[in-house]
Specification:
Helix Hairpins; single chain; 8% strand; disordered N terminus; mainly alpha; two-stranded antiparallel ribbon; 4 helices
């Protein structure tokens, strides 16, 4: 039987204008190979499973189990300290959270409202940490002023804005509920 195989290079496109991203002197690994086979080709045989089958490798090489969890916890704690020590916005939000946590016990009229109040605070901090990570990565990749980097940072900042709006709305509704203004 005659088999027809073709290799097609599919370039990755990024950006509003669908322009390829390339940096001077950098090798582009953004082309993937796609095999197109004719109808006469058979599907590849399935991977063997069961007791005699070879073990599959994990998605990421390295330690697993409790050692991986311990290392991940250390990275998280290091990130918390780094963010708190270097970012003014994170410091401000941590101070607000430190005031809001004890206040939440008086504002919440049920455990579910208290959970919503705490979740809104943690959500704001999570989005702020992501915003900080995006900004730092942008500054590392492109230290000079760049419109695309500015837009990326603005988008991340907008995410923080909406997280703050959500937290404000949750707290406002909880306070209104507690005071019985509309109920």
């Amino acid at each position: 039987m005659l088999r027809n195989r073709f290799r097609v290079a599919v370039p990755c496109r990024i950006g509003a204008l669908n322009q390829p991203v390339a940096r001077p002197g950098a090798k582009s690994s953004c082309h993937s190979k796609v095999s197109i086979m004719s109808g006469n080709d058979a599907a590849p045989p399935p991977e063997p499973t069961g007791p005699g089958a070879p073990k599959q490798k994990s998605a990421l090489p390295g330690r697993g189990g409790l050692a991986r969890i311990g290392a991940a916890t250390q990275h998280s704690i290091r990130g918390l300290f780094e963010g708190f020590m270097t970012e003014a916005a994170i410091k401000q939000e941590v101070v607000i959270a430190a005031i809001a946590v004890p206040l939440s016990f008086f504002v919440a009229s049920s455990i579910w409202i208290w959970l919503a109040l705490m979740s809104s605070l943690l959500f704001v901090l999570s989005v702020e940490f992501m915003n900080t990570a995006i900004e730092r990565l942008c500054n590392h990749v492109q230290p000079e002023k760049d419109d695309a980097i500015r837009d990326t940072k603005d988008l991340a900042s907008a995410a923080v804005f909406f997280a703050l709006l959500l937290a404000g709305a949750v707290w406002l509704v909880a306070i209104v509920d507690r005071l019985g203004i509309f109920g």
